[in-house]
Amino acid sequence: MPEQQVLTKTPPSLIEGPIAKTMILFSLPILLGNMLQSLNGSINTIWIGNYLGEVALAATSNAHTIMFFLINSIFGVAMAAVTLIGQNLGAHKVQEAKKVVGTSTVFFLTLSIVVALLGWIFSSTILDWMNTPADVKEQAVSYTRIIFAGVPFIFGYNLIMAILRGSGDAKTPFYFLLLSAVLDVALNPLLIQGMGPFPKMGIAGSAVATFISQLVSFVSLIVYLYKRKYILRITKEDIPLLRINWTIIRTLTQKGLPMGINLVVVSLSNLMLIHLVNSYGSESTAAFGVAMQICSYVQMPAIAIAAAVSSMAAQNIGAGKWDRVYRITWTGISVNILMTGLIVAALHLYNREVLSIFLPPEGKAIDIGVHINNITLSSFIIFGIFNVVTGVVRSAGAVLFPLGAAFIALVLVRITLATVLSHSYGFDMIWWSFPISFAISATLNLLYYRFGKWKQARMMTSKS
Fold this sequence. Notes:
By secondary structure, the protein is mainly alpha-helical. The radius of gyration is 23 Å and the shape is globular. The protein has helices at residues 2-8, 19-52, 54-90, 94-129, 134-149, 151-166, 171-193, 203-227, 246-278, 282-298, 300-318, 322-349, 351-355, 364-376, 379-395, 400-425, 428-451. It folds into two domains: 2-244, no CATH class; 256-456, no CATH class. The model is unreliable at 1-10 (pLDDT under 50). The protein has 17 helices and no strands. Helices cover 81% and strands 0% of the residues.
């Protein structure tokens, strides 16, 4: 009987208590996790660059592009799982949430094995499609094959992270992400150079280090969850739930694909901007690249807060606490303005000093970078606003309007401003396209939040 009580108790943390405190505590591990992943990648790049040189760096960049695409391709489905699990737990339907876990586990496991096998077999062909330079090809194939072998652990970790966040736990994924990052950073030089008892493996050593760190972290996370008797773990009695439930699969794909496509829209917009900036010369390209690297850190709080808001709103929608959903929305907007605003203010004060870390302190590039930041940095406060609102409406199951708004603002408006108007009104229109497109997206999403029918959306239209 005590076991049954543990399994049927819905985590209360996201549907009661102080909203602002809960949101900040929930978003901080997500923020730190995103920063940790970026730092992990940067340190490994330093190891490879120092020990193996530019050719090896080029080889890994090709593999990382492939993995970025694969992870983004499952992002939407994972977010749909977060919402579905959150709504069910908010409604105290633990068994329904477990059905989502069971089906998602089979789906992700099958998909990851297929991707890993195809990637291992066709790594050379995929790299040819990417026009990988001949002098990079051999190392790139070696590195990419091992990275593909680790896909089941990457997909598995992302699924467990989604399940945990859906149930209100953002801390546990961060701890095991930290374990993976520490192992990866420590093993890279040992396996690249063959230090101590470790074999010298060159670029393959870097990939093996990543593989081992992901495997250890993934297995440790599963062991930890079962030892702690996590509420949504699959027990012996739940084994029948490890099957494909086509109603759940249809929901995850129908709701998840638009979220995944949203990332494609953002990437497409950025690629088109880079193509345009390249035409203005190497100084502009360098300045833009560094400015966007800085912006990637500026937008991290907004992304973390939006993730927290989405999980909180999903549980409260499931519980029918709509007054609390509204408060979550405006609290999320306020927290974003505060957190992102403080970062933006600090960067404005030390604009040139921060840019000089990446660019020569004297020269045209750093002046262009300062100018870009002066125009674009504050716009990421607006970016955070529409991300929060999007997170709320998606948590109800309304996913098409945010996708349409993103396409209108980030592709149609931004690229038109940057390409057409820059020829008439000058180079600055490229940078002004950021605040203008973000403002349009925020306005569209706020209007939909106020007047749209997102509250009538449903994640699942039929019983599973």
